[in-house]
Amino acid sequence: KGEAVRFTNNSSHNMWVMSSGGDGGVYPAGDNSCGQTAFDTCIAFPPNEIWEFTFDVSGTWVYRNNVNKSDVGVIRVK
Q1: Is the CB of residue 16 less than 8 Å from the CB of residue 5?
Q2: Tally of CB atoms within 10 A around 6
Q3: What sign does the dihedral 39-42-48-50 (CA atoms) show?
């Protein structure tokens, strides 16, 4: 909790990281949220770019690439 995770787009296509629910539900909204969650890049970012997000809420947070929805992952915050 309180640490940043860096998402690096090492692919050859755009990437859009966003919370997609899971055991802990969708990550809560915040001041900088563009939708229902603060854990969202809000736009796709190109190859070789990075995006960092600081998790301030404990839980198990499932995310997906909104450009290619089969790309998924899990972040566990304690």
Answers
A1: no
A2: 8
A3: negative
Rounded Cα distance between 39 and 45, Å, is 14
Amino acid in the structure at residue 46: P
Enter the pTM of the model: 0.87
Amino acid at 26: V
In the three-class reduction of DSSP (H, G, I as helix; E, B as strand; rest coil), residue 73 is classed as strand
Cα(65)–Cα(13) distance, integer angstroms: 11
Tokens 């301030």 belong to residue: 56
Tell me the three state secondary structure of residue 4: strand
Q: CB of 34 within 8 A of CB of 53?
A: no
Q: The tokens of 48 are what?
A: 């070789």
Does residue 45 carry a pLDDT above 80?
yes
**pLDDT at residue 10 is higher than 80:** yes
